[in-house]
């Protein structure tokens, strides 16, 4: 598509956008009595207006039924989590029996590594990407220490080449082959939080399996953002948070995936708990654990229904729209943002920034990371003070995420005008 940097063109794209009306289904922070331009759904998604209904339903059932709500509310609490299986399966490309919800992201990753990081002999190493999200780094370090290894002995990071800001796939594949029978686990973020780079999960998973390793993914920045086919790619396990692209609220419950090939493997360790026990016999209070068939057999505790209610609201929105339409809009609106950034770079002599997210659509979602060579944090502050909510990452990156559910093309155009003025203002200082 040939883009234009003017408001009428942006409005024409909005008029053609079949998802445009969803913008009105979300609450926006206000700036000068107007909706902000919100580019931070890759950190915390906006609240869908329908969410309150789902939460209030649980509150009312609790008030009116108390403990009986477990069985007699409209959405009984004892199997509330099962309502996620079908919509989540479509979002991540899985079978309904392969997905579940519980806890929060890093907790789930720790629980999954009980099953999927089992070092034996010389096969002890974990391969991850350089500059993974810090929580993943801390999690991996503590896991290898738990098994008696030093992180520098057991954790191998894929380094970016000197002078490059993203990771080359051929380097990942070469390192997997090099490690060979020393490699126990490949564990990478499906979308790098800093650069917005999307990794080729299918190819990397196959390469890990070829050398006998388990392959898992942190999908915090991928779920609800990019096309996923976890079952067909033969991914062993994955987990994701729900509060970024899936708009479930701050620090909310995590989704997870366990491939069906592992469901009946009695040799896999797992930390068991009441809600992973045979559903039909759960209330018999038996002393020995009998796992539920499927991913729900990895559950531990009674589910936090008040946390799940906002998540259910948003997964049902995803089910109504479908990932195909969201991805189609994402591709166009992210390309338009990229176009506007390049136009500003041409127009303003003082502009000194670089888009470090890959320009190839297959290697990115809706996040563009912009490296500021000249303006620094002053420009970020200007944007925030002028109604653009964006995200700063040290040492010098602004992350912009035009989430297709609630970002308009006119938002992108207006951002460009604010950015242009901000660069001029910062250059004067």
Automatic annotation (TrEMBL):
<comment type="pathway">
    <text>Amino-acid degradation; L-kynurenine degradation; L-alanine and anthranilate from L-kynurenine: step 1/1.</text>
</comment>
<feature type="binding site">
    <location>
        <position position="302"/>
    </location>
    <ligand>
        <name>pyridoxal 5'-phosphate</name>
    </ligand>
</feature>
<dbReference type="Pfam" id="PF00266">
    <property type="entry name" value="Aminotran_5"/>
</dbReference>
<feature type="binding site">
    <location>
        <position position="221"/>
    </location>
    <ligand>
        <name>pyridoxal 5'-phosphate</name>
    </ligand>
</feature>
<feature type="domain" description="Aminotransferase class V">
    <location>
        <begin position="176"/>
        <end position="246"/>
    </location>
</feature>
<feature type="binding site">
    <location>
        <position position="274"/>
    </location>
    <ligand>
        <name>pyridoxal 5'-phosphate</name>
    </ligand>
</feature>
<keyword id="KW-0662">Pyridine nucleotide biosynthesis</keyword>
<dbReference type="GO" id="GO:0030429">
    <property type="term" value="F:kynureninase activity"/>
</dbReference>
<dbReference type="InterPro" id="IPR015422">
    <property type="entry name" value="PyrdxlP-dep_Trfase_small"/>
</dbReference>
<dbReference type="Pfam" id="PF22580">
    <property type="entry name" value="KYNU_C"/>
</dbReference>
<comment type="pathway">
    <text>Cofactor biosynthesis; NAD(+) biosynthesis; quinolinate from L-kynurenine: step 2/3.</text>
</comment>
<comment type="similarity">
    <text>Belongs to the kynureninase family.</text>
</comment>
<feature type="binding site">
    <location>
        <position position="106"/>
    </location>
    <ligand>
        <name>pyridoxal 5'-phosphate</name>
    </ligand>
</feature>
<dbReference type="InterPro" id="IPR015424">
    <property type="entry name" value="PyrdxlP-dep_Trfase"/>
</dbReference>
<keyword id="KW-0378">Hydrolase</keyword>
<comment type="function">
    <text>Catalyzes the cleavage of L-kynurenine (L-Kyn) and L-3-hydroxykynurenine (L-3OHKyn) into anthranilic acid (AA) and 3-hydroxyanthranilic acid (3-OHAA), respectively.</text>
</comment>
<feature type="modified residue" description="N6-(pyridoxal phosphate)lysine">
    <location>
        <position position="244"/>
    </location>
</feature>
<feature type="binding site">
    <location>
        <position position="218"/>
    </location>
    <ligand>
        <name>pyridoxal 5'-phosphate</name>
    </ligand>
</feature>
<feature type="binding site">
    <location>
        <begin position="133"/>
        <end position="136"/>
    </location>
    <ligand>
        <name>pyridoxal 5'-phosphate</name>
    </ligand>
</feature>
<protein>
    <recommendedName>
        <fullName>Kynureninase</fullName>
        <ecNumber>3.7.1.3</ecNumber>
    </recommendedName>
</protein>
<keyword id="KW-0663">Pyridoxal phosphate</keyword>
<dbReference type="InterPro" id="IPR000192">
    <property type="entry name" value="Aminotrans_V_dom"/>
</dbReference>
<feature type="binding site">
    <location>
        <position position="105"/>
    </location>
    <ligand>
        <name>pyridoxal 5'-phosphate</name>
    </ligand>
</feature>
<feature type="binding site">
    <location>
        <position position="243"/>
    </location>
    <ligand>
        <name>pyridoxal 5'-phosphate</name>
    </ligand>
</feature>
<dbReference type="InterPro" id="IPR015421">
    <property type="entry name" value="PyrdxlP-dep_Trfase_major"/>
</dbReference>
<dbReference type="InterPro" id="IPR010111">
    <property type="entry name" value="Kynureninase"/>
</dbReference>
<comment type="subunit">
    <text>Homodimer.</text>
</comment>
